[in-house]
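Deliverable D5.2: sample structural annotation.
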Amino acid sequence: MELDTHLDLVKHFKEQFSHNSALIHMNNAGLAPISLPARDKIIYWANRFYEEGFYTDADYMEDVAFSRKKLSELVGCQPNEIAFFQSTAGAISQLCLEYPLEEQDEV
């Protein structure tokens, strides 16, 4: 990848976030600022759920499947290997339920 292409990608990525100069985000502990596309997607689904409720289910599940597919391509796995959790702590807890932990093991 050429340097200007890399710099262009970084610039584009950074432009997707708010630039409130009064705030500095260091360790956000899961409450980091979200990107503009993420904000727009949240607003989109909030409006659909508000107006249509359960009638959005097929479209919502299609969007979830699309997200799984794109994430699996990014990390190099199959879409059925992608799981969504409300928090990192919740994901780790679920993982530990399936992991063969023994007495005195630490996570």
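Annotation notes: The mean pLDDT is 88. The two ends are 38 Å apart (CA to CA).
The annotation will be released with the project's public dataset once the embargo ends.
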